[in-house]
Design a protein that fits this description.
Blueprint: H1 6-16, H2 29-32, H3 49-59, H4 72-88, E1 91-92, E2 100-102, E3 105-110, E4 115-118, E5 121-123, E6 129-131, E7 149-161, E8 177-181, E9 208-214, H5 220-223, E10 226-229, E11 241-245, H6 246-253, E12 265-273, E13 275-279, E14 285-291, E15 302-308, E16 314-320, H7 321-330, H8 345-359, E17 366-369, H9 373-391, E18 398-404, H10 412-419, E19 428-434, E20 452-456, H11 463-473, E21 481-483, H12 501-505, E22 511-515, H13 535-553
Parallel strand pairs: 7-8, 8-9, 9-11, 15-18, 15-19, 19-22, 20-21
Antiparallel strand pairs: 1-14, 2-14, 3-10, 3-13, 4-5, 4-12, 6-11, 7-12, 14-18, 16-17, 20-22
Helix pairs in contact: 3-9, 3-13, 4-9, 7-8, 9-13, 11-13
C-alpha cells in the first residue's frame, strides 16, 4: 500500500552501495537480512521476536512450496496451523469437530468439446469461439463471468461496441445471444480484455454475451485452467460470455459486424459452450479454532481474529533471488504492485554495481518459491502468538481464530466462512484482520514513518470500535503512529476492499484491518522470505493488537454499529 517516489528509491539504493565491501557485516540489511535458517526454540506465552522467528521460519519454509490454496503446500500449511492451534489449547471449530472448513474451490478449464452452430454451420472451438471464465471476485468488482451456454435456436442480436454509451438496451437482449464489438486499444486493435471498459452485468438476462475479440488462438485467460470459487449453496449473478471471431460474427449476421447497426437481428444459434471442473490438487481449507471466553454470560459471543494462510506458490521459472531484491530496490520499490518496467540506463548501471558487490560475497541463488513470509505468514504466526498469549488469561468473550485460505485468489476463504460461519454470524461482535505484519523498517520506506501502523476500516461501521483501537494505542507501551492514509474514501488502492475483513464487514460486522507495511520490494516476489522480517517490531505490534482484542472481548456490550451497512451481495467500492 505504499508508493516510494523514484528519486527517493535511487537515493536509498545509492546510500546502500558500499564500495569494496569485504565483510558480510558491511552488507546492508535491506539486501542481506538475517540468516536464511533459524534453529527452532520452544515458544512461550509472551509475544516475542524469538517466538515469531521460530514460527515464521517454519511456516514460510521452502517445504511449504509457497502455500498456494488447493495445492499440497497449502495443505501442509493448514495442517501445521491446526497442530499449533491444538498444541496451544484452542478448541477446533471447523467442520465435523475438526479444525478445518473446506471451501468450494475447483480447477476450471474451457471444455474443448464445446459446440456452437449458426443454423447448420458448425463453428470451431478455439478458432471461432471460446468461453470466458470467471475473472476475479465479483464481491470485489470482478465481472461475474463463467456461466455456460446451452440452447437450441437461440435468437441473436447485435448490441454495438462494449463500453460505448449507445449499446443496446438490456430489455432488447433478454433470452438472446447479444453480440458486441470489443473496445479498441490505443493502436486500434480489438481489446480482448473488454471487461476493463464494461463488465456487462446489465446483460445478465441474455442467454449469452459474445464479444468479437478472438483473433487467433484464445488468449491465456480464456484457455488456461484456473482455480475457481463456486459456492452452489449461495450462488450469485453469473454471466455467460464468450469470445468470438469476426468470421463467426459474419456467419451470424451475413455481414461484417462493423457495418451493422445496433439492434440488427442475426441467425439463430444452437449448442453447448462451457467448462470442465476438476478437483484441486488438495482441498482448500480454512483453519478455525476457538479460545473459550471466561464469562458464562458472554462466552457465546466472539471477537474474530483473522489472517490468511495462503500465498501464491511457485513462479513459472526460477529467478535469481538477489537480483530481484536489488532491481526492486531501485526500479520497483513496491514489488509486484509497481507495474513492470525496464530500468533506465542509470538505474541499470546502479543495479549491476550493487549486484556485483553482493555476488562477491554471496553466491547467486536460483529461486522459484514465493515463500510469503510477510504476506501473510507474518499475520498467520502473529495470530498464533496472540492466541498463546491469551490462553492462560482468557478474556470474557470467546476469541474465534480463522486462518483463511484462498485470499490471494479472491478472498474466497473469508467469503465462504462469512457466508457459512461455524458459529452464529450474529454472535461475532467484531473482526480483527492482520495482513503483512512483518515489515515497516526504514528500508521499507513506509510513508507514515518508522513507527507507522496502517489501520483501515476501524470507523467505517462502528465509531466505538475505532475509538477503542485508538484508546488502546494511547497506552505508553504502544503509541504507534496510526496511519489512516489508505482508509480514505476513493483511495485508488481500494485497500479496504482487498483483504479478508471486508467479507465480514459486508454483513455489518465492524472490523479493524492492520498492516505493518503492505507493499515493499519483496511484495509478491520470491524474495519474501523470513530473513527480511522485522521481528522486534512485529512482536510490538502483536502486543498492541492483543490488547485491542482483549479490550473488545471484555466489553459488556457489542461495539455499536452506527454507520450504514454494506449490501452483503454487492461489490465493494471504497
Amino acid at each position: 500500500m505504499y508508493t516510494l517516489p523514484l528519486p527517493r528509491a535511487l537515493a536509498t539504493a545509492l546510500a546502500l552501495l558500499v564500495p569494496l565491501m569485504t565483510d558480510a557485516q558491511d552488507m546492508p540489511r535491506v539486501l542481506v537480512g538475517l540468516p536464511r535458517t533459524h534453529a527452532a526454540e520452544a515458544t512461550t506465552a509472551d509475544i516475542t521476536a524469538a517466538d515469531l522467528k521460530t514460527r515464521l521460519y517454519a511456516f514460510a519454509d521452502d517445504s511449504m512450496e509457497g502455500r498456494e490454496a488447493g495445492k499440497r503446500g497449502g495443505a501442509r500449511a493448514e495442517e501445521w496451523l491446526a497442530r499449533e492451534a491444538r498444541r496451544i489449547g484452542l478448541i477446533p471449530a471447523g467442520d465435523n469437530g475438526t479444525y478445518f472448513q473446506k471451501i468450494p474451490l475447483s480447477s476450471r478449464k474451457a471444455d474443448p468439446s464445446s459446440i456452437l452452430r449458426v443454423g447448420d454451420q458448425a463453428l470451431a472451438y478455439g478458432r471461432d469461439f471460446a468461453p470466458v471464465p470467471r475473472l476475479g471476485a465479483p464481491a470485489l468488482g470482478g465481472p461475474p463471468f463463467g456461466g455456460t451456454f446451452n440452447g437450441a435456436n437461440v435468437e441473436t442480436v447485435f448490441g454495438g461496441r462494449a463500453g460505448d454509451p449507445n449499446t443496446i438496451e438490456p430489455a432488447a437482449v433478454r433470452g438472446k445471444l447479444v453480440v458486441l464489438l470489443a473496445p479498441l486499444d490505443p493502436n486500434g486493435r480489438l481489446r480482448a480484455t473488454f471487461w476493463q471498459r464494461d463488465n456487462l452485468v446489465r446483460y445478465a438476462g441474455a442467454a449469452a454475451i459474445a464479444v468479437i475479440a478472438l483473433d487467433g488462438p484464445p488468449p491465456p485467460f480464456a484457455s488456461a485452467a484456473r482455480d475457481t470459487y463456486d459456492d452452489r449453496e449461495k450462488p450469485g449473478t453469473t454471466l455467460t460470455a464468450m469470445l468470438i471471431s469476426n468470421d463467426a460474427a459474419a456467419a451470424i449476421f451475413g455481414a461484417p459486424a462493423a457495418s451493422l447497426t445496433v439492434g440488427t437481428a442475426g441467425k439463430s444459434v444452437s449448442g453447448r459452450v462451457g467448462f470442465i471442473d476438476t478437483p484441486t490438487e488438495t482441498p482448500a481449507r480454512n483453519v478455525v479454532a476457538i479460545l473459550p471466553g471466561s464469562d458464562p454470560a458472554l462466552r457465546n459471543s466472539y471477537v474474530a481474529v483473522g489472517a490468511h494462510s495462503d500465498h501464491i506458490g511457485f513462479t513459472p521459472r526460477a529467478l535469481e533471488h538477489d537480483s530481484i531484491r536489488v532491481f526492486n530496490s531501485i526500479v520497483r520499490p513496491r514489488g509486484a504492485d509497481d507495474p513492470p518496467r525496464p530500468a533506465t540506463e542509470a538505474q541499470a548501471s546502479l543495479v549491476h554495481a550493487v549486484l556485483d558487490s553482493m555476488h562477491r560475497l554471496l553466491p547467486a541463488r536460483a529461486d522459484s518459491i514465493n515463500n510469503g513470509a510477510d504476506d501473510d505468514g507474518s499475520g498467520s504466526v502473529l495470530a498464533l502468538e496472540i492466541a498463546e498469549s491469551l490462553v492462560k488469561h482468557a478474556p470474557r468473550r470467546s476469541v474465534l481464530f480463522v486462518w483463511h485460505t484462498a485470499e490471494e485468489k479472491g478472498l474466497y476463504g473469508a467469503q465462504y466462512f462469512s457466508d457459512h460461519p461455524t458459529v452464529p454470524r450474529d454472535s461475532i461482535v467484531a473482526q480483527i484482520n492482520m495482513d503483512q505484519m512483518g515489515r515497516g523498517e526504514p528500508e521499507d520506506a513506509p510513508p507514515g514513518g518508522r513507527n507507522a501502523l496502517v489501520i483501515i476500516g476501524a470507523k467505517r461501521l462502528s465509531t466505538e470500535l475505532g475509538t477503542l483501537a485508538e484508546t488502546v494505542n494511547a497506552r505508553p507501551q504502544h503509541s504507534f503512529a496510526l496511519d489512516y492514509a489508505f482508509d480514505r474514501d476513493g483511495d485508488p488502492t481500494q485497500a479496504y476492499c482487498r483483504s479478508d475483513h471486508y467479507m465480514y464487514a459486508r454483513y455489518g460486522i465492524p472490523v479493524v484491518f492492520y498492516s505493518a507495511a503492505a507493499w515493499h520490494i519483496d511484495y509478491h516476489m520470491v524474495s519474501d522470505e523470513p530473513q527480511y522480517v522485522a521481528y522486534d517490531r512485529t512482536a510490538r505490534i502483536g502486543r498492541y493488537i492483543r490488547d485491542v482484542i482483549e479490550a473488545v472481548a471484555n466489553l459488556d456490550h457489542r461495539p455499536v454499529v452506527d454507520k450504514p451497512r454494506p449490501d452483503p451481495n454487492g461489490s465493494c467500492k471504497q
